[in-house]
Amino acid sequence: MKIIILAGGFGTRISEESHLRPKPMIEIGDQPILWHIMKSYAYYGYDEFIICCGYKAHAIKEYFADYYMHRSDITFDFANDNAMTIHNNVAEPWKVTVVDTGLNTMTGGRVKRVQKYIGDEPFMLTYGDGVCDVDIKALENYHRVQGKIATITAVQPGGRFGVLDIEANGSISNFQEKRKEDGGWINGGFMVLEPEIFDLIEGDNTVFEQYPLEECARRGELSAYKHDGFWQCMDTLREKNMLEELVVKGEAPWVKW
């Protein structure tokens, strides 16, 4: 099953980093978050990726063009006709198709533009800025059992702030950190889709999270795979630093490889 990764947005909420490179290329540890997402899929045996680029698409293309060289030990022998010797092969067993889907194309439009690379078969879709420790093989099996057009991974991100109970006189009677369980379920990405979804995408201006998914829900063709484990998007520098700290400490839940 092929995986589409949406990696074309401007990343304006993390402009401290994204003014230099697309958000999926922002590094966590020593590798882009895009690489972390792909490694998560590969851990479960999924190794064919279609990356929908837009903003600074060249950076993603150059990363994969040079991937083998950057991940290998190499000897350059300038005295011997500039001979180059590769000492180890650390390239991933991946097939990666990088597609420039337009600078201002909406999420649904990006998916529609890569339809020819999917064909008439089910596929997976996720965002290029979030990591998760979801069991992707179990997610696929759940989707097949449900038999619907679309399955999304539902997560509870929780809240960042404490909850206050404030009395009429202004006194705080209770302070409690907001628990994850107190929040609602949201779309965490990591979706499984049938090719019929393409029929619900009109063109470049279609937002995938609006009409296509809303229409699936209206038809009873949208199911949720509830994930109670780790999930985190990287919208801000604060979130990037939090993910970085988890990797540095060796405590990143999504790193199973």
UniProtKB/TrEMBL annotation:
Domain of life: Bacteria
UniProt keyword annotations, A-Z: Nucleotidyltransferase, Transferase
GO terms (BP aspect): O antigen biosynthetic process
Molecular function terms, GO-annotated: glucose-1-phosphate cytidylyltransferase activity
Stored InterPro entries: G1P_cyt_trans, G1P_cyt_trans-like, NTP_transferase_dom, Nucleotide-diphossugar_trans
Keyword Nucleotide-binding: no
SUPFAM superfamilies cross-referenced by the UniProt entry: Nucleotide-diphospho-sugar transferases
Nucleotidyl transferase domain segment(s): 3-201
PANTHER family on file: GLUCOSE-1-PHOSPHATE CYTIDYLYLTRANSFERASE, GLUCOSE-1-PHOSPHATE CYTIDYLYLTRANSFERASE-RELATED
Protein's UniProt name: Glucose-1-phosphate cytidylyltransferase
Organism: Eubacterium callanderi
